[in-house]
Amino acid sequence: MMTWAVLAWLPMAGGVAQTTMAELHEVVSVPAEAPWQGYGFQPAVAPTLVFRPAPGAPPWSGHGEWRIELANRMPWAITLTLQAEGDGGERLQATVGVPAGPAQTLVLPLRPLSPRDFGMQAGPPMPFESSGRRLLLATTVTGTPLSGALRAVRVSMPAPQAPQQVWFAQPRTHPDETAVTEAYRAIVDGFGQYTRGSWPEKIADTPALRAAQVREAATRPPAPAGGDRYGGRPGVVGLTATGWFHAQKAAGRWWLVTPEGGAFFSLGVDAVDPGEGRSHVQGREWMFRGLPPREGPWRTFYGEDRPASTEIGARAGLAFASGTWFDFYAANLYRADGADGLSAWRARTLARLAAWGFNTLGAWSEPALGAAHRLAYTRTLTIAGAFGNVATGQDWWGRMPDPFDPRFAEAAEAAAARASAGAHDDPWLLGYFLDNELPWAGPGAQGRWALARGTLAGMPVSHAKRVFIAELKRRYGSAARLAVAWGLAIQDWMALEATGFVAPVPEPAHPAIAADYAAWQRRYAETYFDVAVTALRRHDPHHLILGARFASSTPEAIEASARRVDVLSFNVYADLPQHGLDRALLQRLDRPLLIGEFHFGSDDRGPFGKGLVPVWNEAGRGEAYARYLSAAAGDPLIVGAHWFAYADQPVSGRLLDGENSHIGLVGITDLPFTGFVEAVRKANLRALERAAKTCLEAPCPGDTGAPARPAD
């Protein structure tokens, strides 16, 4: 065991806690043989302890793990930040939450590390029990690997508001990553559930699963009565029936309107699909316990995934991103209903969604559910092909397609034919989304201009780049005039044509930069939407075009979309929809808008991630859902909101990108989260009433009483 010394407090406001060992054992039950010392982190920006090997002691190894026993003596959890310093000046950083209660071993891996190294985006909860000890592993470590010995470890607390007492024992290094391995070992059972957790919907065996499905069906409430067969609400003055879903403004707000003329507020669920429970198992079989054999009836639930490209940002640095996968969700349907599991799931799922107050199948849902004609459904125009692209830095799902490339128009035509096949004459089809979360903008303060700057950074063969430069030549005539307007030191147009050209950031001294970028981004968006909408209208002139599912956007893209689609769509992950939208711009445009995705997650039902908008616990999910939906229904521009997603993501990470969050209405076993879905059902019914409150009077001035199409 290594000897140790506390070097300093930073700032020097801390102090040794004067607590006897007897008092300490009474509070935290630490081992009697441990040489503990207590410290009070005093109110300051970042009070810090520095641990070093004692003078004359052997150096600490810069490999493996650094460990220290500690006990949080406060009645609440605290946060500690760790910084390991190597002899060569390298640094590693991590942040850990330390719960109150028994003593535990804090473990800092001495290399950069994250759950992505294990094929998932969120790591298992800490601490965990291993061989009778509580281990608190820093699952995410950033920085530079240490090239030599470990010189020091700084342990600090961010801005405590009152003294916080923590007890420490001797730190030591461990030559390998035993705690890292143990943290991920056997964490998923054969049903796809987290092995170390417990929650009301967790099942122990197949008979329990079957019994739970029977109970759920027996206690399921009836679907709301009233309205037309599409779920439209009668009694809103001024709406017209066209035989197709359409958008119309009446009595002071925008509505979707059913084919029979009923007012329709789209309450939808995304990814209602039995194939969402697939997770890679090849190469990390040690992380699972009780995987079914790969023969007999179980072989149906194994498959191979060999992505053609791993360039999308969602897969960057993700280990175990290809190879053999197992479909836990589909296997559980087989356990519950045998060979008839898929058809039983379809009937059960449609009945559940109707009973819970939903009326729409959102994006990524199984086509067979829409074909059942029980709920309105959506389709997505996914334009893929060998056309050019532009990097914006926000390329999570891939780069921005180049709509000036002639191959893009060809791909759009093929995509429109695929998307509309078998649906262009179906009145149950709500409409089409155009792609999904394209990177219209980039990250950071200057992200709005990423599309323009990314275009100019492209290769000379880029169609978009050639069009942009041609536009600048027409506007300025000479490179010298552009240089003055943009504050550049260029002599000719060849400078812009070079691959990797670093376009300037807009600044007040050169207002022409922002004006030229905005003009280009407007033309870019207009071209994209013209091509996509024209292709889709050629194959299906009847149904709604539901917009681009913006996750990142620019005013130019929103305005171009508003003039060409029937409904704007945004994926808004926020506490309220209005907090993720440019309300001033949208009010000026006065177009209907649909929330394509939103959710709230917690980590108390198995999966480790809390999604994009975390809440404290399961009860908080229902409360957050009700607030969000009430705000959406009360907004006269919003015509619907779709929850993402129907089922929880696999504990070990989904195939696409390793996401593993508890964001579902049902779990990996297809059992509903009872308390949450009841809160959802009540919120859905209230939302319909809230939306209708603005529609109790005669049509307002400006209401046309006719279906609305975007202006030319």
From TrEMBL:
Coiled coil: none annotated. The lineage of its organism: Bacteria, Pseudomonadati, Pseudomonadota, Gammaproteobacteria, Lysobacterales. Residues 1-22 form the signal peptide. This is Putative hydrolase. Keywords: Hydrolase, Signal. GO terms for molecular function: hydrolase activity. Transmembrane segments: none annotated.
